[in-house]
Write a structure and sequence with these properties.
It is a single chain. By secondary structure, the chain is of the alpha/beta class. 47% of the residues lie in helices and 21% in strands. It has helices at 2-16, 30-36, 54-61, 65-71, 76-90, 137-158; strands spanning 20-24, 45-50, 94-100, 115-122, 125-132. Strand 1, helix 2 and strand 2 (45-50) form a beta-alpha-beta unit. Helix 1 (2-16) runs parallel beside helix 6. 46% of the residues are buried.
Length: 159
């Protein structure tokens, strides 16, 4: 399913001559890997950043210190700023950001393992969705990528 969505995203963006970038935390580069696994992705994929540390989120993606202090790295606000930061950093039409708790540790009562935020920056604005996923670390990462690509395809086709 991931490969199918990635192929359709790359194909549609290629037809429309639009570009894409990623900013990943919890998915650890799997989103960029899914996209670059498709032949011809170099025509549309400008780059990706795995921003695991708050310092990188701030310095390279422009996530504000206030957002990280008030909401934390795993939050709607951080995902939004990661996506808009990637859109600006890479100079693209679309950007996708992921942040969450992939587990197996690191979860809290307020932010349990499986809590994931995905943000999509488009020419029309930014959307953020919260997901509650389950399974192993790898399963949570893969499902984050699948959901990110699925909705990205919808947004690209609607643009």
């Amino acid at each position: 399913m991931i490969e199918e969505y990635a192929r359709k995203v790359v194909g549609t963006l290629t037809q429309r001559r639009q570009t894409l970038a990623t900013a990943e935390s919890c998915s650890g580069g799997r989103l960029a890997a899914a996209l670059t696994g498709i032949a011809g992705a170099s025509l549309v994929f400008n780059g990706g950043l795995v921003a695991y540390s708050n310092d990188v989120k701030q310095r390279l993606l422009g996530v504000s210190e206030a957002t990280l202090s008030e909401h934390g790295a795993v939050s709607r606000a951080t995902a939004l700023q990661m996506a808009t930061g990637a859109q600006q950093l890479f100079g693209v039409d679309f950007a996708v950001a992921t942040t969450g708790v992939a587990g197996p540790g690191g979860g809290t009562a307020a932010k349990p393992v499986g809590l994931v935020f995905v943000a999509w920056a488009t020419p029309k604005g930014v959307e953020v969705t919260q997901f509650s996923l389950s399974g192993s670390r790898g399963a949570i990462q893969d499902e984050s990528v699948r959901l990110a690509l699925k909705h990205l395809l919808e947004l690209v086709e609607a643009d």
